[in-house]
């Protein structure tokens, strides 16, 4: 007797996925739609976002939004509710970095942009999404896409790594308060995921994070500090136990697990999707 469910794992669920116009975000959007979810993807890249939505218009729609803009977040929530009638999952995937360089060369503009998108974007999203789940009274999930740089920081991207570390920590504290964001700013670790998980668990809201390795999504040079050549890719991959870069499908699979009922008793944790790089 087959005890495993054959139905789509996200049937009947509604997900908001930020930064869904390309890269890891595009992979997450398409996988969620394949698994039965209705998806509102947001991005500042209107052309890319509309193209992704057009690949499966019955399940995916696009809304242009900047995660660093509080008013845009309010519009995102209202749009998702008006189009789909409810909310179940938020994937905070949108992120940015600066070119790998000496920390002394990082500008205030570099720093502010990283924290505006990578940390403040999650803050604004949490402020509007989580209260909506509480109103619905049926629980839900939030997934924060951080980076292996948060678990295994290296020279050249110190403040980017710190911003992604903040995302992990907020998730943990939310699953159990205003204190979670203070901790995120001070510790610059994985406080966002852990803090929110700690706070919102009583509402049956699960919050987890995913830390992917660098992928072949057009940012190799920015992250590695080396030109994107076959030789430089080979050098990088030689330090990855599973001997390849991360693919959008890898990140999508991890996010699917956290969004589905398969992880119904899992909150406040971080999944390293890095081929063993952080070992």
From TrEMBL:
<dbReference type="InterPro" id="IPR020904">
    <property type="entry name" value="Sc_DH/Rdtase_CS"/>
</dbReference>
<keyword id="KW-0521">NADP</keyword>
<dbReference type="Pfam" id="PF00106">
    <property type="entry name" value="adh_short"/>
</dbReference>
<dbReference type="InterPro" id="IPR002347">
    <property type="entry name" value="SDR_fam"/>
</dbReference>
<comment type="similarity">
    <text>Belongs to the short-chain dehydrogenases/reductases (SDR) family.</text>
</comment>
<protein>
    <submittedName>
        <fullName>Uncharacterized protein</fullName>
    </submittedName>
</protein>
<dbReference type="InterPro" id="IPR036291">
    <property type="entry name" value="NAD(P)-bd_dom_sf"/>
</dbReference>
<dbReference type="GO" id="GO:0016491">
    <property type="term" value="F:oxidoreductase activity"/>
</dbReference>
<dbReference type="Pfam" id="PF13561">
    <property type="entry name" value="adh_short_C2"/>
</dbReference>
<keyword id="KW-0560">Oxidoreductase</keyword>
């Amino acid at each position: 007797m087959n005890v495993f469910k054959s139905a789509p794992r996200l049937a009947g669920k509604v997900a908001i996925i930020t930064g869904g116009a390309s890269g890891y975000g595009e992979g997450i959007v398409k996988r969620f739609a394949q698994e039965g979810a209705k998806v509102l993807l947001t991005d500042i890249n209107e052309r890319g976002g509309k193209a992704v939505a057009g690949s499966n218009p019955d399940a995916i729609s696009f809304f242009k939004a900047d995660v660093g803009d509080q008013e845009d977040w309010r519009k995102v929530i209202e749009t998702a509710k008006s189009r789909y009638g409810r909310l179940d999952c938020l994937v905070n995937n949108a992120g940015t970095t600066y070119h790998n360089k000496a920390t002394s060369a990082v500008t205030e503009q570099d720093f502010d942009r990283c924290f505006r998108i990578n940390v403040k974007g999650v803050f604004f999203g949490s402020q509007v999404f989580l209260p909506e789940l509480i109103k619905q009274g049926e629980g839900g999930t939030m997934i924060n896409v951080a980076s292996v740089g948060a678990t295994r920081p290296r020279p050249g991207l110190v403040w980017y790594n710190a911003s992604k570390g903040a995302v992990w920590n907020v998730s943990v504290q939310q699953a159990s308060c205003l204190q979670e964001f203070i901790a995120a700013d001070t510790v610059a670790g994985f406080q966002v995921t852990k803090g929110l998980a700690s706070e919102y668990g009583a509402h049956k809201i699960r919050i987890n994070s995913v830390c992917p390795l660098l992928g072949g999504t057009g940012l190799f040079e920015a992250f590695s500090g080396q030109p994107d050549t076959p030789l430089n890719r080979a050098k990088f991959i030689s330090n990855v136990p599973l001997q390849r870069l991360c693919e959008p499908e890898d990140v999508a699979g991890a996010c699917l697990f956290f969004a589905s009922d398969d992880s119904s008793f899992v909150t406040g944790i971080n999944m390293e999707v890095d081929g063993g790089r952080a070992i």
